[in-house]
Fold this sequence. Notes:
homodimer; 331 residues; alpha/beta; UDP-N-acetylmuramoyl-L-alanine:D-glutamate ligase; nine-stranded mixed β-sheet; 21% strand; globular
Amino acid sequence: MTKPMQVVGIGNALVDVIAEADDAFLDRMNVERGIMQLIDTDRAVELYAAMGPGREVSGGSAANTIAGLAALGARTAYVGKVKDDQLGAIFAHDLRAQGAGYATPPTPKAHAAETGRCLVLVSPDGERSMNTYLGVSEFLGPDDIDESQMARAEWIFLEGYRFDGPDSHAAFAKAIKACKAAGGKVAITLSDPFCVERHRDAFLAMIRADVDLLMANEHELKSLYLTDDLEAAIGRARAEVPVTACTVGARGAHLIAGATRAHAPAVAAQVVDATGAGDLFGAGLLWGVVTGRDWTDCLRMGNVAAAEVIGHLGARPEADLAALFAEAGLG
Amino acid sequence: MTKPMQVVGIGNALVDVIAEADDAFLDRMNVERGIMQLIDTDRAVELYAAMGPGREVSGGSAANTIAGLAALGARTAYVGKVKDDQLGAIFAHDLRAQGAGYATPPTPKAHAAETGRCLVLVSPDGERSMNTYLGVSEFLGPDDIDESQMARAEWIFLEGYRFDGPDSHAAFAKAIKACKAAGGKVAITLSDPFCVERHRDAFLAMIRADVDLLMANEHELKSLYLTDDLEAAIGRARAEVPVTACTVGARGAHLIAGATRAHAPAVAAQVVDATGAGDLFGAGLLWGVVTGRDWTDCLRMGNVAAAEVIGHLGARPEADLAALFAEAGLG
Lengths: 331, 331
C-alpha cells in the first residue's frame, strides 16, 4: 500500500516549557509525579511563576512521534491546533523544519486562548511530571480534518490525549472514516492511564470498531481493561485489535498480533528526561511498520528511538535516528 | 561598599532560538561564522524559515551575566526591554525564576516590534553564529533607567551591544551618573569586535571618563585600540581603565590593574555551544569582585563559569556554579 503519506498524526499541538524540579517543589505545588495533569489558565500562571528558569521545545505527544518519523525520512504530516501567536509560530516552524507537513490553520489572534503548552517538571531521576494547559489545541474539531489528506495516508495516528476534547471525538471519527474508505489503517496511542480512566468507553468503542494498531504502556493497557494483570490485558487486546504494542519500561516492549508475539529488550540509556519516551517509541515502531520490517525489528526501532529521546531534555529527537538504527544493526 | 544591589546589568533583552547548522547551511544563507550580526524582520523570517528545529532559551548578553550572578546568590537585577508578548513573558520569567530583579515595564502589545530574539546557529564544533533581531530591545532609552536603582548598586554592568541603539547612549549616561554619584562603580563589556568597530569613539569616550572595569576578549580589545598586538592593546587599556579583564580563548584570561597583572588558565571543557562563554566569564569575574576575592580567583571563577556554559546548548547556567567553584578550590 503505497500512498503519498505514510503517517498522518492528530493530537494536541503544544510547546513544552521544561524546568528541573525536586520532590519538595512537586509536593509544595501539588504536582502529581510522572503523569499528565490538565491545568487551567490560573493554575498555569501560578505554576509557571513558581517554577525555575525554563527552556522551550516544541512538544505534543503525536507531534513528537511525527517529528521522529520525519527525522527518519517518512512522508508524514500532522494535524493539531495552535494560535496565531509566537508559540504557535515556533510549533509550526519546528515541525516543518523537521520535514513534516503541517497545514492546520492557526486560530486567529482574537481568540481568547493561546497556543497550548505543557509545563514539564523534570525530577533529578529524569521522571517527568506534565502539567498541560491545552489552550486552543482543545478546540480541534471536524472542520480541522481534511478528508482528502486522510485518504492519502497509509496510516493515521491518533493521540489518546485528544479524547479530552468533545469535538475531537467527531474529528477522529471523520478522519477514521476518510482514511478507512481509502484503504488506510488506524493507529492509536492510549497516552496516559488517567486519560484512559477519563475516556475508557470511548477508547474501547473506537478500538473495537476501527483500530488496527494499538500502542500503550503497561499502565495504560491495564487501565483500559480494568485489570492489574498485564497478561490478562494483553489477552483482551489480542482479541480486539489486530496489533497491540505494549511497552513495559525497563523490561522493553511486547507486540501481539493474533497468534504472533514478539519482544525486544529496552535499550540502555542514561535517563535525563523521560518526556517523549512513548512518543518516540511510536515513531520507531511506525517507521518499522511503514518500511515493512518484521515485528521484532519494529519493536527494536521503537526502543532505540525512545532511548535517544530520554537521554536529553525535550521530547523531540536530537541525534540522527537512522544512524542509531544502523549502529543497532537495524539499517 | 555594601549596597542593596551588588550588580545591576543593562542590555538587550533577547530570547535565543538555537539550532544546529553545518558550514554548508551557513554559507548558503550568508551567515558570518562566530560573530553577532544584526538582522531585520525580513531577514529574521527568511533565516528562521530555513533553519532547523529550534529550542528557545532566554538569552541576551548582560542578562546571561546577571542570571549567572543570581544563580550564585548575588543581589542583582537587570534592565532591558521586552514586549508584552509570549517571548517577553518567557524572558521575564526566566530571569526572575533565577532570582534576579527585573522591573523594566514591557512595551505594550500595540507596538509594531516584538520581543527581540537571537537566531543562534551552532556548528558541529560548537562555534556559534548569532543573528539578532533586536525588536523592542532596541528602544531602551533614558526613561527606562530608574536612577534610584542605579544609586543602590555597587556596580552597574553595561552591555556593549546596546551601543547599537542611539537612545541607549543617553540611557547609559543617565545610569552612570546616578551610580557614580552614589559611590558606585561601572563595568562594561565590549561584546563583539564588530560592535566595537561600529562604536569605537563612543566606547573610548565612556571608558576614559567613567569605566572602572573593562571586560573584553582579545579580538574586541585589539579592535578597540586598532592594533593587532594584544600587549599593545593591554598597555593602552592599562593607562585608561583601573581594571581590565581580557579573555584569550583557550589560553585563559588576563587581568590588568595598574602595576598588577594576573592570569588564569582556561578550564578544560567539551565545547557543545560557545554561546554565553564571555557572559558567564563576566558573571564569575563579577562574583569574585563583589565578594572581595583576589584577582586570580576572580579570573578563575570567570573561567569555571564559562566552561560550564559552553558544555551545553544555551547561554544560561544549568549546573550549580557555586558547587563548581567549590570543586575548583574556590569555595
